[in-house]
Amino acid sequence: MENQEDSNNNTNNDNNKKKKHFTDVDTNAANSITDLWQQYSPMAWTEMYNEYVKYAAKMTEIYQEYAKSSEKMTELYKELAVNADKMTELYKESAKSTEKMTKHWLNYFPWMKPLSENKEKKEKQEQKKRQEQ
Q1: What SS3 state is found at 12?
Q2: Which of 8, 51, 98, 112 is 20 to 30 Å apart from 79, CA to CA?
């Protein structure tokens, strides 16, 4: 009988060891709860909010700088377009001047005329001679 009681006591002790009372504290659980509290406490939220405000302010500055840069680039592109138009006009004037000079010099030096013009003149002269005959 005593053996039976001893075995019952051993079984009860084992069951008691397995059961946890609400007053028993698991140190890992306590640490994780402490970490959670520190992470999600009102102070942590305040710090996170302050960091977010700093971040938002910095992003606003960056976007404002980007907007200024974009405006400058727009102005530069407008200037570039105006300059391109001026260059186009200058090239047109240059082409006209070159054409006038070429005609002027060709009048003074008929041997410099293009071959096609010389051939046409020769053909016309030959036709006139044939018609006269």
Answers
A1: helix
A2: 98
CA distances, 131 to each of 118, 121, 124, 125 (Å): 20, 15, 11, 10
Report how far residue 76's alpha carbon sits from residue 82's, in angstroms, rounded to the nearest whole number: 10
pTM above 0.90, yes or no: no
**Average pLDDT, integer, range 13-28:** 54
Answer whether 44's CB lies under 8 Å from 38's CB: yes
Distance CA(84)–CA(4), nearest Å, equals 109
Separation CA 44–CA 108 (nearest Å):
94
pLDDT tens for 92-109 read: 999 999 989 888 887 777
Q: Look at residues 11, 8, 27 and name the one whose alpha carbon lies nearest to residue 19.
A: 11
Q: Which two tokens stand for residue 21?
A: 């009372």
- Phi, psi at 22, each rounded to 5°: -65, -15
How does pLDDT run across 109-126, given as a tens digit for each residue?
A: 766 666 566 667 778 788
Task: Report which DSSP code applies to 113.
Answer: S
